[in-house]
Each structure stands twice: as structure tokens, then as C-alpha cells.
């Protein structure tokens, strides 16, 4: 991961830069985009013995959960937020197709970019608790995205190793 061209000079800039690095990955774990790159379509629905999830299951779960956290953050937990039913609404209920995979991957990466944009926006207050959900902040939600993504991307890489499609040839 390349270093920023200009070093952060304030604590707020430093925090925002570190949040972006955590969201994008590439320091303590594989970069988010790299973990999902170059997956052969034939592998997306494969499972290993005893494994509960396919790569499709994991990507779609990542997409749904990240989109949900982003929606919650955008409305600051307000009354327009609709809570999803756990766990059923967070996991796919059918195998994926290559087209579904690409759409999910594109949406996941676009929402990740939106999370990064929140982290980078100096006009976004990271610390003020949400009015409707005290204790929840933009900072908390961005850390939740990064933590959740890192956990499941580790599963993606482990599964890819077992399926013989790690490391990707084009990364």
C-alpha cells in the first residue's frame, strides 16, 4: 500500500488516514480488493468439507452487511433506517451466478469507496453520538465495517487456498 503523498499534520487527519488504511487493507492483512480479485467463476459456489460457506456466500454477506452499516450511518440510526432480520437477511439463500458475483463485487467495492469517502471527509464528525442511537458514532460504524470485512476476508482467503484459487494469478 503506497504511503500518502502528504503526511497528515493534525490528529484528525492522522485518524482519518488510519481509518482509510484500515478500510482498504494492505497493512496487517491482504488488501480488500486483492482478496476478492481473480476468483474463477467455477469456484464461487464451491464448499470444502465441513465448511459452512462458499465464496459467493461470503461476498454476498460482506456486501449486505457493509451496505446495511453504511445505510445506518448515513441516517445516523434515525427513524428512516430499517433494521434487517438477523441472520436470514444477511446471507444469500441461493447459489450465485458469475453475473450475480460481479454485481455483488461491484456494489461491495462501491460501498467500500463510500465508507472511505466518509472517513476522508473533514466535514463528517466522527465522534458525536447519533441522536437516535446513543453510543453509536460514524467512527464506531467505520471501525465495525473494517473489522467485519477483515474477519470475512480472512475466511475468503482460507477458502480460496483450500479450493486452489489463491493466490490469484493477476494480483
Q: Would you write up a description of this structure?
A:
By secondary structure, the chain is an all-alpha fold. Helix content is 51%, strand content 0%. The protein is built from 5 helices and no strands. It has helices at 11-24, 32-35, 55-74, 98-120, 138-163. The longest helix has 26 residues, at 138-163. The mean pLDDT is 94.
- List how many beta strands DSSP finds: 0
Approximate helicity band: 40-55%
Number of helices: 5
| Largest sheet report | none
Averaged pLDDT: 94
- In whole angstroms, the N-to-C terminal distance is 13 Å
- Give the percentage of residues in beta strands: under 5%
Structural class: mainly alpha
Principal-axes shape call: globular
Series of secondary-structure elements, N-terminal to C-terminal: HHHHH
Radius of gyration: 17 Å
Q: Spans with pLDDT under 50 lasting ≥5 residues? A: none
Could you list some keywords that capture this structure?
single chain; 171 residues; mainly alpha; 5 helices; 51% helix; globular
Quick overview of this protein structure:
The chain has five helices and no strands. The protein is mainly α and 171 residues long.
Write the layout of secondary structure elements.
Layout: H1 11-24, H2 32-35, H3 55-74, H4 98-120, H5 138-163
Amino acid at each position: 500500500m503506497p504511503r500518502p503523498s502528504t503526511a497528515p499534520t493534525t490528529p484528525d487527519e492522522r485518524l482519518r488516514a488510519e481509518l482509510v488504511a484500515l478500510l482498504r487493507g494492505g497493512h496487517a492483512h491482504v488488501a480488500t480488493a486483492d482478496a476478492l480479485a481473480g476468483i474463477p467463476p467455477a469456484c464461487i459456489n464451491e464448499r470444502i468439507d465441513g465448511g459452512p460457506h462458499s465464496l459467493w456466500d461470503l461476498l454476498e454477506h460482506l456486501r449486505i452487511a457493509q451496505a446495511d452499516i453504511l445505510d445506518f450511518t448515513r441516517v445516523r440510526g434515525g427513524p428512516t433506517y430499517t433494521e434487517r432480520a438477523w441472520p436470514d437477511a444477511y446471507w444469500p439463500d441461493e447459489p450465485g451466478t458469475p453475473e450475480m458475483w460481479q454485481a455483488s463485487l461491484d456494489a461491495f467495492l462501491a460501498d467500500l469507496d463510500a465508507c472511505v469517502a466518509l472517513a476522508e471527509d473533514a466535514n463528517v464528525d466522527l465522534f458525536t453520538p447519533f441522536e437516535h442511537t446513543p453510543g453509536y458514532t460514524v467512527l464506531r460504524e467505520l471501525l465495525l465495517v473494517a473489522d467485519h470485512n477483515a474477519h470475512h476476508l480472512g475466511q475468503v482467503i482460507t477458502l480460496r487456498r483450500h479450493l486452489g484459487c489463491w493466490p490469484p494469478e493477476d494480483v
